[in-house]
Design a protein that fits this description.
single chain, 112 residues, mainly alpha, Multidrug-efflux Transporter Regulator, Chain: A, Domain 2, three-stranded antiparallel sheet, 5 helices, globular
Length: 112
């Protein structure tokens, strides 16, 4: 039986996933608003559940159920593209709009 290790996101990858800067991810971590794992020499990695939990707290609608996300992902094939490529930012979009578009795309993927 194969064991699947959870994906660990670097600070830059987590920033792309959330649609914010890497510096903002670091600020969120030090403020205790997003979970992380310290791997070595003050370097941090982020589990997808950390990122989803943060997005769920930021959403105005119902919170994201991490267990439901895991179950849905287990039932389907892994996506061919990374989470950051789910949305192509339009020229002139602000980071906030890019983040919202990424969040909406992620929610649509989870519902499917």
């Amino acid at each position: 039986m194969a064991h699947h290790l959870p994906r660990l996101y670097t600070e830059q990858e987590a920033a792309e996933y959330l649609g914010v800067s890497a510096r903002t991810v670091a600020r969120l971590r030090t403020a205790g608003k997003i979970g992380s794992i310290e791997v070595a020499d003050r370097r941090h990695r982020y589990l997808e559940e950390h990122l989803l939990a943060y997005l769920g707290r930021q959403a105005r609608g119902p919170a994201i159920d991490v267990q439901a996300v895991r179950a849905a992902r287990a039932k389907r094939k892994p996506p061919a593209s990374s989470p950051s490529s789910a949305v192509v930012p339009k020229e002139g979009e602000t980071r906030e709009l890019q983040g919202r578009a990424l969040y909406k795309a992620m929610r649509r993927r989870l519902v499917q």
